[in-house]
């Protein structure tokens, strides 16, 4: 899993039906690195340092075997000093 | 998921049957970065900033469990300033 | 999917049985980049620019769910100017 | 699989239920490289050099097909001089 | 698949049961690049140039659907001049 910081929410009105209404968040490994999009499964806010799971595990973690995610936030880190 | 920009459509006359007639698009993370090919599941046009899902999730997102995709466009981002 | 160029065929006499007699090709993203090995599912020749699918989709694309491939050529690009 | 060194344990009080109480460890390939988070399936301590498996294999290795891991420690290396 | 060179065998006494007694080998893409660990499914020796398969295909290639591998050697290359 990767350690990433939540930057902000992402709005995508035109998306496939199977994504449902799960919140999508922009995350990045560190200031200046390429942003990724993660599905939020724990309820976090911008600034949180979180654990993101990828690969096929991201789908179950997002709540269903056929959920179209390859990056899902599965935990908020209690204390993290990057 | 990755945030990518749609560059153009890609024509491949000689391809395997299971790809069907789904549109294939050239996408890239930013100007000058290596281009990738994504299957379009939402209907987007060149210039759009989109959400691309990879891993095994790309297959279901493309419409069928056995669709041969490892990168599928699942949403168009409403506003994105890279 | 990645856009790659076919360099040459690869001979591996000692290989696991499940690979069968499918042709293996050396491919690379551009001159000088690290070579990869892909299973040919469309019938291409050195010099062709092709679409390569990875992840679990590479297995089905190679013809069977248990085929041991993580990179399979699924289409030849009609025109490509890198 | 990757060869990584265990740095320390990671505490995440707010995490999804399916992660259970498995220990989460911060690991890295070498001093200064980006840290990752791995699920410990063998019982190791900070300073150990370990074998980490990724992809879908990380899930079974963590103990269950639906465990949300994409990086699991599957062995401690007896002697390793990086 | 990747083209890698076998460096040496790796000993891990403390490992999870499902790994069994399959030989683990240290492999690398070229002199000086980061070493990886691969499961040997063909019987190779240090110095061999081999084809390594990753992703979920590495599991079947290692002999069983639930074998915890994400990198398995599936063939020895007859002639390779890097």
UniProtKB/TrEMBL annotation, chains A, B, C, D, E:
Main location group: other
Taxonomic placement: Bacteria, Pseudomonadati, Pseudomonadota, Gammaproteobacteria, Chromatiales
The entry's keywords: Bacterial microcompartment
Record-given protein name: Carboxysome peptide A
Organism: Acidihalobacter aeolianus
Keyword field contains RNA-binding: no
Record's subcellular location: Bacterial microcompartment
GO cellular-component term (any): bacterial microcompartment
